[in-house]
Structures are given as structure tokens and as C-alpha cells.
Amino acid sequence: MRTSRPARIGQYTALLAYLVFLAFPFLWLLSTAFKPPRELGSLHPTWIPKDPTLDNFRQAFGEQPLLQAALNSLIAALGAAVIAVLIATPMAYVVARRRTRLAKAVTGWVVVSQAFPFVLLIIPLFLVLKNLGLINSVPGLVLVYVVWALPFALWMLAGYVRAVPPELEEAAAVDGAGRVRTLVSVTAPLLAPGIVATGLFAFITAWNEFFFALVLLKTPEKQTLPVVLTHFIGAEGVADLGPLAAAAFLATLPSLVVFAVIQRRITGGMLTGAVKS
């Protein structure tokens, strides 16, 4: 059915309002990052800085080790995303294709695990990392992020596996391919959009995570970017607004860049090229 013109106008208006709602925090952060102290304390704030300056960025890099913190966050987020995807892909294949009690139990575990609050997990995770000698280390934080991201990654990839027609795997079996060969050569290429989306989820979750990093990392040179951003807030809760906005703006860029680069892989057709010639 064709949509009437008033309905289309209403839809586009709602979409535009939603986009403005999403973009407002980022645009205001960008504006604040370039404002001098005089404009930051003004009673009549403006969208566009009247006298833009880079002093906030210079001060932010001068006060805190942002580059080292960004490197720590990148290592933790990228490591967690890669490991979580490598573990979750074969597990998701088994859960989606095997209709057994174990597969149902795993699915139930995935659902239940998402309801656990961080506070209940931090103590057992801390004890495990202490026994492994990984407290106050980036590899230990990577392990924690993998544990946290794995349930949702498994659930997400299992849905993509179920969308792959079993007939393709049956055809591969007729040609003599085993389970592992079928997963690697037939199913995995078709799961590329799902794998990319799952990896993006794990990366952004780890990049923005704060609580685990705050508890597990004590040495300043090993702290991640979200933890270092809190150093711009004084003991009395007064924020150094300009440098904080500059540092927070830089912290959001990797997520935006990663999403912009791989968005076509996420929205691409999942079964493109799946027809057997």
C-alpha cells in the first residue's frame, strides 16, 4: 500500500527529530572542546565558538597520558573483539545446528548471564585474575572483556547461523566436506556481516567500558581511556570542562571511525554469492 503524503511527512519529521536527538550530545561536545574558558562560563552559551581555540586539547594532553591510555584501550578492545569472535563462531554454529539439551542449556546460560550486574561479577573475576597473576595488567582486562562479551556474541552469531540455509551445508557434505571444512569454507564466509557486527559490538563495549578497568587497573600507565577521563574531575567534583570535552571528543573518534569503515559489511546482504553454481 502506498503511504499518503502527510504520513510520509510525519515519518521524515520523526526520523529527523530522532537524528537530532542522537547528534546533539556529540555536537555539543565538539563545540565545548573548542571554546575558551571565557565562553565556557558564559550564561548565554552558543553552538559555534566565537573564538575557537586548541588550548583545551593542548591542556588535555599535557595533564594526562591520553596517548598511552588510548593505546591500552585499543589493545584491550581489539583483543577482546578478536578472541570473542573466534570463540563464539564455532560455539554459535553448534548451538544453532544441534537441537540438544546442551545447546538449550547454553542458550539459557546466555540469557541468564546478561542479567548479572557488574558488582556480582567483579569479586569472582578479581579472585581468578589474582590467582593467574593478571591483576593490574591489560591482558587480564582483555580476559575479563572476553568473558563479558562472549554470551551476547554467541547469541548474536547463533541468529546469523540459523539464517544460513542448511541446504548449503548439505550440498557441501555431498561433495565430501567435513564439519570443519563446511564451517570454514561454506558457513563462515556467509557469516561475514554477522561476524563483523559482533566484533564491532565487542570492540565498542570494551572501548567504552569503565567499571572493570577502574577496579582492576591501578597503575596510571596501564589505565584505559575512560578511567583517565575521570582525572579531569577534581576532588570536589568540579570538572575541568574544556580539557575534559577535548579528551572525551578524542575518545569517541575510534568508535565512529570503526563504524564508518565497516558499516557496509554490516548492512550488506548476508547471503550474497550463496547460490551454488
UniProtKB/TrEMBL annotation:
It is a multi-pass membrane protein. InterPro entries: BP-dep_ABC_trans_perm, MetI-like, MetI-like_sf. Keywords: Cell membrane, Membrane, Transmembrane, Transmembrane helix, Transport. CDD domains: TM_PBP2 (cd06261). Residues 70-262 form the ABC transmembrane type-1 domain. Pfam families: BPD_transp_1. It is found in: Cell membrane. The chain crosses the membrane at residues 12-30, 74-96, 108-129, 141-161, 182-207, 244-262. It comes from the Bacteria. Belongs to the binding-protein-dependent transport system permease family. This is Carbohydrate ABC transporter permease. It comes from Streptomyces violaceochromogenes. The lineage of its organism: Bacteria, Bacillati, Actinomycetota, Actinomycetes, Kitasatosporales.
